[in-house]
Amino acid sequence: MILSYGVADQMPNVPGFAECWGTSIVPCPYCDGFEVAGRHWGVLWTGPQSYQSVKLFQHWTDKLTVFSDGHEIPSEIQADLARRQIAVADGRIAGIAHQKGHISTVNLDSGRNIAVDVLFAQPRNKPSAGLHESLGLATADTPTGIVLKVDERRETSVPGIYAAGDLATPFLPSVTQASSQGAMAGIFAQQSMLA
User: Fold this and answer.
1) Per DSSP, what are the bridge partners of residue 142?
2) Phi and psi for 55 in degrees, rounded to 5?
């Protein structure tokens, strides 16, 4: 058996976020950065991986605002962001103002509203179905969400059950990677049936 039913993004309980998801709130600069290069980008801070994103994003734009959303950003990172002339907006996000999914401002609980053209965010995800639970498959809780544990052959914790794609990939989801993993899972699943 090969499982590849994907994951579901878990939208934060912020008014306007879900309505903008996939249009002007996006997860990937490689997928969506070219179209908004040079414009004002927002980055939703979720932890140290956000710092790496900010450094990467400077290759696309020099207008960046980091939204801490109530997270504490370490002082050494704040100092580096200041050195890079990247604004940090403290406070929790209270809502996203938008027109038909196109973001206009990120509204903070302080009453401050900050205009951005795009907001990069990494909401957590979880498997989009529960078959893995009924099969008793082991999972891992990663910074991006819940994924199935697999070995180098794409086999799960239960012999004869394989997984591919975002369902079993903790970082950098992509169609190309999912196709490759699906092919690997198929090959190893077929080889496991040889007597």
Assistant:
1) 145
2) -65, -40
pLDDT in tens, 50-81: 999 999 999 999 999 999 999 999 999 999 99
- 18-43 pLDDT, tens digit per residue, is 999 999 999 888 888 888 999 999 99
Give the domains, in start order, of the chain with CATH numbers. 2-7+124-192 (3.50.50.60), 22-120 (3.50.50.60)
pTM: 0.82
The tokens describing 33, both together, are 């950065």
Distance of CA 110 to the CA centre of its chain: 26
Question: What DSSP string describes the chain?
Answer: -EE---EEE---S-TTHHHHBTTTEES-HHHHTGGGTTS-EEEE--SHHHHHHHHHHTTT-S-EEEE-TTPPPPHHHHHHHHHTT-EEE-S-EEEEEEETTEEEEEEETTS-EEE-SEEE----EEESSSHHHHTT--EEEETTEEEE---TTSB-SSTT-EE-GGGG-SS---HHHHHHHHHHHHHHHHHHT--
Tokens linked to 5: 């039913």
Q: What is the mean pLDDT of the chain?
A: 92
**Length reported for the chain:** 195
